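Inverse folding, one chain.
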């Protein structure tokens, strides 16, 4: 029985994508990432490079600024970025899968044309928030406070690459608990 490597199924285009991203990671990420990790900072200067290698929305059609590639190419891009740093890969995969894909799939044509090209170039960075609805009840202790806290949370989109991209949680009334 002959066992064939999965890599033998890659097309020339897939190999070119993989090799190009691998080279970029070696040149632009690997030399700097340890220093940034030690300082607990994200190297924002690589955002344009991520966009340049097609890491933001590679499977989004080119008419919206994406790469128009297949899912195998997307997986290869993410795998190669992961070789350099998991946080950088998370940045690219969140931008592609949790920000761009929902806009492409569920957004209006106007939203696609407005946001996707800017997200693909890194001019805009998207964010997402994730909570578990029931987990707040145990930490706060009261359903009423839980409901008030849920209403006071919101997320903000980063307008450009110079801003820190983060999910901001605002608790207007939760910071000052009433004493009984």
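Residues assigned per position:
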């Amino acid at each position: 029985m002959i066992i064939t490597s999965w890599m033998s199924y890659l097309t020339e285009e897939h190999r070119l994508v993989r090799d190009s991203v691998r080279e970029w990671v070696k040149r632009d990420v690997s030399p700097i990432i340890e220093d940034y990790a030690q300082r607990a900072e994200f190297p924002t200067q690589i955002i344009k490079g991520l966009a340049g290698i097609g890491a933001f929305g590679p499977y989004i059609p080119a008419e919206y600024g994406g790469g128009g590639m297949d899912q195998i190419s997307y997986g290869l891009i993410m795998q190669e970025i992961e070789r350099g740093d998991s946080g950088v890969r998370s940045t690219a995969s969140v931008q592609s899968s949790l920000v761009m894909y929902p806009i492409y799939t569920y957004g209006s044509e106007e939203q696609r044309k407005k946001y996707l090209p800017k997200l693909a170039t890194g001019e805009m960075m998207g964010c997402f928030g994730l909570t578990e609805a029931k987990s707040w009840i145990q930490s706060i202790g009261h359903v009423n406070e839980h409901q008030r806290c849920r209403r006071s949370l919101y997320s903000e989109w980063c307008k450009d690459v110079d801003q820190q991209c983060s999910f901001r949680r605002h608790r207007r009334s939760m910071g000052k608990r009433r004493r009984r």
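DSSP finds seven helices and no strands in the chain. The domain at 12-121 is CATH 1.10.540.10 (Butyryl-Coa Dehydrogenase, subunit A; domain 1).
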